[in-house]
Amino acid sequence: MSRVQQAQVPAGEASSDWLACLHEMFDLLWPPPTVVTLDSKWPAQMGLAGSRRRAGSGLAASPGDREFALIAGIHRPPLMVPAQRRLAAAAVRQHSRPRSAAARMGVRALCLGLGAGMGGSALRWTLRGRVQVATPAGADTIDEHLNTVLSRDLAVSMYLGPARANRKPVLQLLAPTGEPAGFAKIGVNPLTRSLVRAEHDALMRLGQAQLARVTVPRVLHYDTWRGLEVLVLSALPAWLPRHRLRPPRLVAAMAELAGVDGLTREPLATSCYLSRLRARLAAAEHTPEWTALTQALGDITDRGGQQTLTLGAWHGDWSPWNMASTGNGLLVWDWERFATGVPLGFDALHHQLQAEVIGTRSDPQAAALRCLERAPRNLAPFGLSPAQARLTAVLYLTELATRYLADRQAQAGAPLGSPRTWLIPAISQAAVEL
Questions:
Q1: Distance CA 390, CA 413 (A)
Q2: Hey, what domains does the chain have and what are their CATH numbers?
C-alpha cells in the first residue's frame, strides 16, 4: 500500500467510509513509491496558489509532485481539485451541475473566489484540507499514465461520490489553461470494471448510431492500467446555459434511443427480456428480499405473461442529473447501464422516479407507488395502452430491485440499497393487481 500520511478530515465533511475509500483510491491510483499526505489543518488564510509556485508556500517542488485542495461538498463528499487558482475554479465550475438558480449563483461565486485566490474566513467553509502527492521520477501513477496515452500535459481533479456498490473514481482532466480535456472513469473492482467496459461498448455503439436528438460523449481512450479499467471520455459542454426541457422533447429523445437497434414486440412470458431478468435475479444472493422479489416476479408473469410489450434500448440511468438541455442539444452522459431488449418506457419511468426520490427527497415507497399509478399517463406518449403501461411500470421496479440485489447495494451502504424498504412492497402490491 502507498504511504498515506496524516489522514485527518473533519467528520462533518466526510464520513469515515468516504475517508477509507479515499485511502484505497490513493493506493490504487498513486501507488508506491509515491507518498500521499492528507492534511486537514491547512490554514484557510493560505488560500490557493497562483499559476506559479511561490517560495515558502508549501507547494511541492519536484516536477512530478502534485498538490490538491479538498473543496467541501453540499450533501455529498468533497471534490479534490488542483491547488492552483485557475485550475481549482475550472474544476469546480465544470464538475458542478446545479439545477436551481440559487445553486448556480452559489457555484459562480465560489468559482470567482477560487480563481481570485481569496483567503481568510471567505474560504473557511470551502477549503477542507489539502492532499500532497510526492511522486519520484519514473513512478507509475494514473496522471502520468493519462498524460502518456493522451500525449498531453493534463491536471486532474477527482470525485468519488457517496457510498454505493458502483462507486469508483471519476477524474476530470484539465488543460493547463483550465479548459476541459475530458473525464476518466476508473474501474477498480469486479463490478465497476464491468460497468466501465459496458460504458465503453455502449458509447462505441452509439457513436455510430448518428442520433439526432441526443449527444453522447466520445471515447478518447480505453485500456487497462495496473489491472484497472480506464475509460477516457470527451467532456460534453454541460456548463452551457440551460434551456427549459419540455416533455415532448424528452419523450422524443428517449424514443429515438429506444429504437437505436430496432423495436420488437414479444409476449412477456416468452420474451428474451424475462429470461435475462430471471437469470440475473437467480444469480443474486438468496436472502428474504430475494425470496419476496422472486415470488412477485412469478405473480407478474402469471398475470401479465400473455401481454405483448414493445422492446428496445434504454440508457439505464436517465436521471435529471445525467443530462443537460442546452442550446447545443440534449446532452446525456453516464451510459454504463445501457442495455437493449427492455420494455419501451423504462427510461421515462426511471427519470420520474429518480427525480422524486433523489431530486426532491420524496418518501421512496410513496414515490414507487406513484410511479405505478402514473404509468398510464406517463407512458401514453410512447404508444402504450394503460394495461401495457402498468405492466411496464411493475417490471421497471422489479428491474431496479434486481439491480440493487445483484450489485449488493445495501451491503455497500447505499441509502436506498435495500429494495425491501421501498421497492418490493410496491412491486408485490402491483403484482397481484395486474
A1: 31
A2: 3-233 (no CATH), 247-431 (3.90.1200.10)
